[in-house]
Amino acid sequence: MSALLEVSGISVSFDGFRAINDLSLAIGERELRAIIGPNGAGKTTFMDIVTGKTRPDSGRVLWGEHFIDLVGMDEARIARAGIGRKFQRPTVFEAQTVEENLHLALRNPRGPFAVLFSRRRPEDAARVAAIATEIGLAEELPRLAGELSHGQKQWLEIGMLLAQEPRLLLVDEPAAGMTPAEREHTTALLRRLAEHRAVVVVEHDMEFVRRLDCRVTVLHEGRVLAEGSLDHVTSNPEVIDVYLGR
Ligand SMILES: Nc1ncnc2c1ncn2[C@@H]1O[C@H](COP(=O)(O)OP(=O)(O)OP(=O)(O)O)[C@@H](O)[C@H]1O
């Protein structure tokens, strides 16, 4: 599998503390990857670096077939390059319908004000319908986003990210606060999404990670401690020691 994202030798310190320590890892095209690890392992900081929120002190973040270095690029440019990030808390427009939320999120070269004040294009409706079907909210299009369940809001936000057509989706702890049925829907959704784009999921819930059935990277003290199938990494004595055995 050729790498879509290649993080190479990145380090970052906060007030002398090395949160990321010579970290290297690669994500393939259309790969589903789970990242696990104890609190403070550097999972959030890793995503902050990839999305341009935090600049590493050293190392490179190479993107795409032209190996563009994302280090030093601002967040908006990285998002436009094709990296979408889903934070833990959903940030949908609660007073708008599901349909309106998706319309607002559609990539539009005319800029944000044009999006707000212009008429909808005919092709947008088809795209909104396709995204709603993909995230399992086709029946909910006329509902206000504020009326959705927690899980449905998370799926809507994923749909809003899909409207930007990312090649890589970073998803932070999707299972948190979800019912068992919502978790099941979410694992199926993430697996389906990874058929067409790369998806990286940071998650603590091991049952959820097991159902993703993908390659797993264990971070510890800002670097990769183990990588492979879930069974492989969870039988690693060091992983048991620092993460599972506690
Ligand atoms: N802006 C910051 N300033 C100072 N220290 C920070 C900053 N961001 C992260 N850290 C520290 O860097 C380390 C890594 O944090 P990070 O949030 O990336 O871990 P994590 O693996 O996401 O943990 P969790 O599972 O708890 O979310 C922690 O010790 C954290 O306190």
From TrEMBL:
Please name the InterPro entries in this protein's record.
AAA+_ATPase (IPR003593), ABC_AA/LPS_Transport (IPR051120), ABC_transporter-like_ATP-bd (IPR003439), ABC_transptr_urea_ATP-bd_UrtD (IPR017781), BCA_ABC_TP_C (IPR032823), P-loop_NTPase (IPR027417)
Q: What is this protein called?
A: Urea ABC transporter, ATP-binding protein UrtD
Domain ABC transporter: start-end pairs: 5-246
Q: Which GO terms describe its cellular component?
A: plasma membrane
UniProt KW keywords: ATP-binding, Nucleotide-binding, Transport
Task: Determine if Hydrolase is one of this entry's keywords.
Answer: no
One family from Pfam that matches here is BCA_ABC_TP_C
Organism whose genome encodes this protein: Rubellimicrobium thermophilum DSM 16684
Q: Which PROSITE patterns match?
A: ABC_TRANSPORTER_2 (PS50893)
